[in-house]
Write a structure and sequence with these properties.
By secondary structure, the protein is α/β, with parallel strands linked by helices. Helix content is 54%, strand content 12%. The chain contains 13 helices and seven strands. The longest helix is centred in the N-terminal third of the chain and has 29 residues, at 32-60.
């Protein structure tokens, strides 16, 4: 990652005019390829800063013996906040990705009783919405811990920073170790913590939806019949949600939804059309714990109903 950052910086004088000429030859007068290159460069720089800070932070934490101490967590949290804020600004300045939320949606995040643990779920349609729950919950004054796919361990800055802040990286095939990891994630966390989960487990694509429904038809025909009408979301995987609900018996659930990113599912999409002209509108709906079923079968149906409602909302908006 450090080498890639240095290479991208060194190539800047050649890359920018080359990309700009390519854009102009394609009549892309707002040079989207240049914008994406600069945003990717900012991501690389942020990641490199996180990597370089990890060593001194490890020394300050008693050579790794006190990484979970309040002072160590606070140092890493400030670094995370800096990185998220900077990437959000660059996404708006370079790519036109501007986040908008109403005061009612902000209030749903804050909750009626001050800072209490909450579970935040969101659909996952683009590379750019992966950071959305973290940005939104940090705006509301929450720390965040995520249940993250193990593939992201390939990003060393992300691995070091988010791992030290208590997030867990899980394999796609799940298993008993996942339940243990999620339960351990909850222990010792600050009460004002948002636990972020993407129940679909991966980015939406139509071909993935077909395969997911096909597998579900084999393992759980009833759920497959219930979720067979999905067109814009993947069937939710209930394991992480069930574990979080058991580990956090008093936590409300906040459902995030967004509009404006469905057209940018791949980097190539934003490379062709940046900057975006419409904002990313985010809505938040808080579900009080008293409205959430207590047994697993009812909870799975409850989660499926949320996903079906989100899918209907997406259909109506396009």
């Amino acid at each position: 990652m450090l080498a890639a950052t240095m290479l991208a910086l060194a190539a800047l004088p050649l890359a920018l005019p080359t990309l700009a000429i390519g854009d102009l030859l394609r009549a892309r007068t707002r040079v989207p390829s240049v914008r994406l290159y600069l945003f990717a460069l900012q991501y690389l720089v942020n990641d490199s800063v996180e990597i370089l800070a990890a060593g001194p932070y490890w020394v300050l934490a008693g050579f790794g013996t006190r990484l979970r101490s309040p002072s160590s967590i606070e140092r890493h949290r400030r670094l995370q906040q800096w990185s998220l804020d900077l990437l959000e600004r660059r996404a708006e300045q370079l790519l036109g990705l501007r986040i908008e939320m109403s005061s009612e949606d902000h209030a749903a995040l804050e909750g009626p009783d001050g800072r209490q643990p909450m579970i935040v779920v969101s659909r996952h349609v683009s590379l750019f919405d992966a950071s959305l729950p973290g940005i939104i919950t940090h705006r509301a004054g929450y720390a965040s811990r995520g249940i993250i796919m193990a593939e992201l361990l390939a990003d060393p800055g992300f691995d070091l920073l988010y791992g030290r802040l208590g997030s867990v990286f899980i394999p796609r095939d799940g298993g008993p170790s996942v339940t243990t990891a999620i339960t351990d994630m909850v222990r010792g966390a600050d009460p004002a913590t948002a636990y972020v989960l993407f129940p679909e487990g991966r980015l939406f694509r139509p071909d993935v939806l077909d395969r997911s429904i096909g597998r579900l038809a084999t393992t759980d025909p009833e759920r497959a019949g219930r979720l067979g009408g999905l067109t814009h979301l993947l069937p939710p995987r209930p394991g992480g949600m069930l574990t979080l609900l058991d580990a956090l018996p008093d936590a409300d659930v906040v459902v995030l939804d967004h509009r404006g990113l469905d057209r940018y599912r791949r980097l190539a999409d934003i490379a062709r059309s940046a900057p975006a002209t419409d904002p990313i509108t985010v809505t938040a709906r808080r579900i009080p714990r008293s409205q959430i079923p207590s047994d697993d079968a009812a909870r799975i149906r409850w989660l499926d109903d949320i996903w079906l409602a989100l899918d209907r909302d997406v259909k109506r908006s396009i």
